Fold this sequence. Notes:
The chain is an alpha/beta fold. Helix content is 33%, strand content 23%. It is built from 4 helices and 6 strands. The chain has a 6-stranded mixed sheet, with helices on both faces. Helix 2 packs parallel to helix 3. 33% of the residues are buried.
Amino acid sequence: MAGTRILVIDDDRSFIRHMQTALRGLGEVRATTCGVDGLRTVDYWEPDVVMLDLLLHDVDGFTLLERLTGPDRRHRPAVLCLTDGLGAGTRHIRGPYWPVGTVERTAPAHQLRRVVLHAASTCGRQLSAATA
């Protein structure tokens, strides 16, 4: 549990604070407000789960998602795309190379924790369900 790394890439600082509070105790949570820094952080910090806002100011989120999930990546985190609730909801999709899922930005803390627990478990890091 303590070794789990969660990276939030979102340009909304209040949402980042919300995520840091909601995910407290699941592992180490880091955040960045731009996609370029997020990609660099993935490369050197190697998080288990990346929570990605697809509507970033500096880079197209879908381009960033392609870079995070490409077949040539050395490190492969589970990726949870943050949605506004009009799209896929909270489902988990097995991508061609590793898991990509979605989670609603407005989901309550217990649901965010559950989705992150599931995503982390797909990457070989088992978290205690008691922490959810």
